[in-house]
Design a protein that fits this description.
Elements: H1 2-21, E1 26-34, H2 41-51, E2 61-67, E3 69-73, E4 79-82, E5 97-101, E6 105-112
Parallel strand pairs: 1-2
Antiparallel strand pairs: 1-6, 3-4, 3-5
Helix pairs in contact: 1-2
């Protein structure tokens, strides 16, 4: 399950930020997850609980925010939201789309004390 390694990576970020900014506890962490990131949210939530034990984020709330998938259509030259990497352009129906975003995952922010 790669969600555990993702949660461990988030723990590393939390610990680095706690050292850098001198906070003791994270109350809430907001995580942005792209539609095509391949993250199983329920598995990540489970891994989060385990990986955060003994860290400043132990007991913190994890809020997962969805980011849409976007692609540039070479037919109409518009950047459009897509639900599937292989979907046609929702604007013109063209099939030549280059994904621009949707596979990212990043810590958006944290509420700390």
């Amino acid at each position: 399950m790669h969600e555990m390694s993702l949660a461990e990576g988030i723990r590393t970020i939390v610990e680095e930020q706690a050292r850098r900014h001198g906070f003791a506890r994270v109350k809430l962490l907001r995580l942005e997850i792209g539609r095509f990131a391949g993250v199983e949210k329920s598995a990540l939530a489970f891994a989060w609980e385990i990986a955060m034990r003994g860290s400043p984020a132990e007991g913190a709330e994890l809020e997962m925010l969805d980011l849409p998938g976007k692609a540039l259509c070479y037919e109409c030259m518009e950047t459009v939201e897509i639900d599937d990497r292989l979907a046609p352009c929702p604007r013109c129906g063209g099939g030549r789309l280059i994904p621009q975003s949707g596979d990212e995952m990043r810590v958006r922010d944290m509420e700390v004390e």
